[in-house]
Amino acid sequence: MRRILAFNHISADGYFAALDGGLGWVVQDPELDRSIMADADRQAARGSGPDPGTILFGRRTYEQFESFWPHALDDSRTGPSPHGPERSVEMRGMAIWINAAKKVVFSRTRTDVTWSNSILLRELDPGDIEKMKRQPAGGDLLIFGSGSIASQLTRHGLIDEYQFVVSPLLLGDGKSLLTGVPQSVRLELLEAKPFPSGNVMVRYGRAK
Hints:
Elements: E1 4-11, H1 30-48, E2 54-58, H2 59-68, E3 79-81, E4 84-88, H3 89-100, E5 102-106, E6 118-121, H4 126-134, E7 141-144, H5 147-155, E8 161-167, E9 187-194, E10 200-206
Parallel strand pairs: 1-7, 1-8, 2-5, 2-7, 5-6
Antiparallel strand pairs: 3-4, 8-10, 9-10
């Protein structure tokens, strides 16, 4: 059984993007990046082997990723950060992983997708997502950003774990990750891990 994980940086007042969609406010944290890549390596060793998993995208987030990550691999042994000019070995590892992963983008307006390992679907069918989760092999299904996709899958109870990196700042205004969720959803705290930068990685699972 595959899991669906939703990963996002959020501000301390609960926004996952500025009003213009920008992410320049995200607090850079090499130690956090190393921890995320180490967790990805452990998950691969436990079950998915060489399969890097599948990323589920809404159109806007897909286009943001598409404009950056295919070009993040160059002759350097490090990779640029999508949030600033810093370069690190961890960002290069992230670029290798994202480019290798299968990418599913849900869009009614795109006519095609050309980024490697990408497929285009016109509609998000919860039944199709459940079938993907029941596949006996394959890595986890991940959502980065893509508030519309995270909201729809939350409404259908299909997200298994929410991973939030809470940044030590207040945006004052911005975009909320989840909208249109008709009722409260009980979550179970799995882990809360602070970092010297002030970032805190918080993992929640759906309460049983």
